[in-house]
Amino acid sequence: MKIQHVFFDLDHTLWDFEKNSDLTFQKVFDKQQVQVNLQDFLTVYKPLNREFWKLYREEKISKEALRYQRLKKTFDTINYSISDALIDVIAIEYIEFLPHFNHLFDHTFDVLDYLKPKYQLHIITNGFEEIQTKKMQSSNIHHYFDKIITSESVGVKKPNPKVFEHALAIANATKDNSIMIGDSVEADIEGALQVGMEAIHCNFEGEEVTATNFKSITSLLEIKQYL
């Protein structure tokens, strides 16, 4: 069946999470006078953040624990003394300021302009519901998308099949006429494949992938080869 619906992940796929996150931390630390070397902080924080997000996807920690623990463990690791109260302030301001940075991956507008006349476009995201729409509005891509499905609105997170089944139902789509595009093999690609959707992996980091049951791209422009 011909593809009619294209589902995108947002962070790390269209919206340049790492660049926007780095800028957000710089703003928060300047505002709160946190005297750490930003690169030293980020070197420790980024892998820890990925670990905590994995726990969050697997329903092993709450959103509140994720927001606090990723900061607490990073500051502890770099031996920076900081109060719990200030960590809470940083966690709140990080979420508040993050959507106002709007860097997208190269060719995002080009690809969305190409796809929009041909397909219905949607977002499926594990990101926090209160900021995902703001990110899309700030970066001027919100209007491209018909449906925005957050895992919080479903009650489970990608790769849980319920997220993809809910998204298909909301979009009035089927697994046979839909494709998922995202950066996470575990959350986006395997999640889509297990409900019978096609998938395209955005492998912008050049990670080694041995699976052959999905397409892989290193630039958003390559989407045009397949759609």
From TrEMBL:
GO terms for molecular function: 5'-nucleotidase activity. It holds the Pfam family Hydrolase. It comes from the Bacteria. This is Noncanonical pyrimidine nucleotidase, YjjG family. It comes from Polaribacter gangjinensis.
